[in-house]
């Protein structure tokens, strides 16, 4: 199994978790993103995250399926 690691630069922080999944193309819609979070399929910094609107900031690591998103913010 290979992991697909992507660096994500946020225009504004904090940004809600479900929006990042949607904007990065890991979910086809906000509704789908919220569903995969509710189903416990997403981790933030190594812990299962069930809050759809969890505030994500620079330094956070999001994992979903075989994807890893490393979060940073625009300077």
Structural class, by secondary structure, is alpha+beta
Instruction: Give the % helix.
Output: 10-25%
Give the C-level CATH assignment.
Answer: Alpha Beta
CATH architecture: Roll
CATH topology: Structural Genomics Hypothetical 15.5 Kd Protein In mrcA-pckA Intergenic Region, Chain A
Poorly predicted runs of 5 or more residues: none
N-to-C span:
34 Å
What is the CATH superfamily classification? RNA-binding S4 domain
**Number of structurally distinct domains:** 1
Count helical runs. Answer: 2
Q: What share of residues are in beta strands?
A: 35-45%
β-strand number: 7
Major sheet, described briefly? 5 strands, mixed
Mean pLDDT: 94
Rg calculated over all Cα atoms: 11 Å
Feature tags:
single chain, 75 residues, alpha+beta, Structural Genomics Hypothetical 15.5 Kd Protein In mrcA-pckA Intergenic Region, Chain A, five-stranded mixed β-sheet
């Amino acid at each position: 199994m290979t992991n697909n690691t992507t660096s994500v630069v946020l225009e504004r922080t904090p940004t809600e978790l479900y929006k990042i999944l949607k904007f990065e193309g890991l979910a086809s819609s906000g509704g789908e993103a919220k569903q995969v979070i509710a189903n416990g399929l997403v981790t933030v910094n190594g812990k299962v995250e069930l809050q759809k609107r969890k505030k994500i900031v620079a330094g956070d690591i999001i994992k979903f399926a075989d994807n890893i998103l490393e979060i940073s913010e625009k300077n």
